[in-house]
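Q: How would the structure tokens look for this protein?
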Amino acid sequence: MKIGILETGLLRERMLPRFDPYPVMFAEFLGLAHRDFEFKTVSVVRGEVAAAIDDCDGWLITGSRHGVYENLDWMAPLQDFIRQLAATEVPLIGVCFGHQIIAQALGGEVVKSDKGWGVGVHTYRVEKQHSWMPTHPASCNLYAFHQDQVVSLPEHAEVFLSSEFCPYAGMSYGRSIITVQAHPEFGEDYETALLEAYGGSVVPGAVTAEALAAMSAGASADTELLANWFADFFLSRHAQALASSA
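A: Here is the predicted structure in token form.
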């Protein structure tokens, strides 16, 4: 199965010597599920445009330092592409910024939340079980790094992950779209590097210290669980599409 990764964010210069770009992070993350995927990157943040929605069997939108409300030149075409994917039920996953821009494209609202920054390991309740979840835990842990949040749901969105800090942390749209606010693709080393780089400046020092202390005490993310969720979502939707076209 061919997955198109829509790159909407670039690593800061200080991160480049140590870490791979986001499309590579996602390819390695999905590789934890040991499925047969191939990947194609379309860097929409650099102005690249996907050839057609059927150029790949499924699509994934990455995180970004940008807010969807910035209305940069590449965001309107991306939202048009999202609406095309939704209309044709080509499978799509959005993460962090991807989660937010899918919500906005389909009628939701995203703001810079007055709750402040959510960083470190966050625990999310599983509010709804889906067929692409190989196991059915009551909650999951994920690395978070965001201030923006979806605050108004699109008409056809259903919440499947939530927390007190982020009520709309995971959403599904029919059978073909799932999104999460947190970062399942992050490793502990990258989350730590972000906290150390931006703590005390962008992210308040007390919030940073609490997140780092929890991670030092053993808080960790359910990375493989989410990799299997994403992989099974893509593969189940692809199988359904092949069956319907046979």
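Helices lie at 22-31, 75-88, 97-105, 188-198, 205-216, 223-245.

The chain has one domain: 2-245.

Upvote if useful.
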